[in-house]
Amino acid sequence: MLQNWNDVTLDSRNDIVFEGRNQDYGAFELRRNYNKRITFIIGGMLVFSLALMGLKKFMDRPKDEEIVEKIQNVQIDLTPPPPIEEVPPPPPPPPPPPMVEMVKFTPPVIKDDAVEEEPQKLQEDVKDVNVSTKDQEGDKDIVAPPTEIKGPTEAAAPEIFTIVEEQAEFPGGIAELGKYIQKNLQYPSMAREAGISGKCFLKFVVNENGDISNVEVLKGVSGCSDCDKEAVRVVKSMPKWKAAKMTGRSVKCYFNLPISFKIQ
Predict the structure, then answer these.
(1) Are 108 and 121 in contact (CB under 8 A)?
(2) Which of 9, 73, 195, 212 is the most buried (most CB within 10 A)?
(3) What is the dihedral of CA 52, 58, 59, 64, to 10 degrees?
């Protein structure tokens, strides 16, 4: 009983101590609700601690990696390269050799009844002429050069023009050509990682039927042979062009095309 009497929060003790006194406020109210307040404070601290722990775990959680897709913009420069010197036309074929005067040589034949069917030429008449199986008049004072035996000649290949009246054209024009290159050109991965950029100058032939052939690199991208190969691949994959024209007919012609590799 004495131990309980020392407990200031005991309701029976407080009723005796504060009997006949105002119990609506003051020490009586504090002692009566002491346990409730302590329980509320401890509970609040526990809830606050749990909230702090949850907030720390939320802040320390691994963040989702943002996947950023890099859009590569390949700029196409369609400015023409420096002009190429015009190749002079081939020289005309040499004139035919002049006619050389010849005298028919008739070997003598011995017969019983010798009849001269054709008069023999005098030595003075055949001194400065060639001997043949028939008579032939030739150009005087001109000596024919020795003839050379040559094999069968091949037909001359069609001429490839550098300058034409109507230039070869990609289907749809320059704008469609730029769209085609931008759509089909693949930037080499090693060049992109190394930050290599530059311009590749190509030269190719557009045939009479619009096919592309003889694709060659005039000047490639410095330090990136893969870029040059990719540019050649794209040109070879192009559809048929509109052929160039000279005097109204389709002809072969050279075409120069620069392709730029640039990372943005």
Answers:
(1) no
(2) 212
(3) 180
